[in-house]
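cron nightly-structures :: item 1 of 1
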Amino acid sequence: MLKEFKEFAIKGNMLDLAIGFILGAAFSTVVKSLVDDIIMPLVSAVLGSPDFTNLFVVLKDPADVASVNMTSIEAVREAGGIALGYGLFINAVIAFLIMAFILYLIVKNVNKLREPEEKIVEEPAGPTQEELLADIRDLLKKG
């Protein structure tokens, strides 16, 4: 049983999966930084919102509303309030779309590298069924 597990763990697919998982985690931090530090400030500047992460709706006020900074979702949540953070959701959706698009481009280009284009060679069209039957008929008439 140990030998079978060793063969399974050493197989190329398992190693590829592990490498893909590690690269995916590292890639995720890069995409998160791209969204949070580059794309969202540009989107916020165009739409006039200072920061999407602090777009939220308070569902339940904290116990001591007067001492809480109500412009920060983290402050509201830390004070015991309940806030619906739709700005955080917008950031997550944008990060997902960027990640999906980049992975699409990567997979598309890797597939182009893996599979060389097969040249389709048009073979000359053979005789049609009617032509073959006519040839057989002519041969039978001859003889």
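cron nightly-structures :: done
The longest strand covers residues 57-60.
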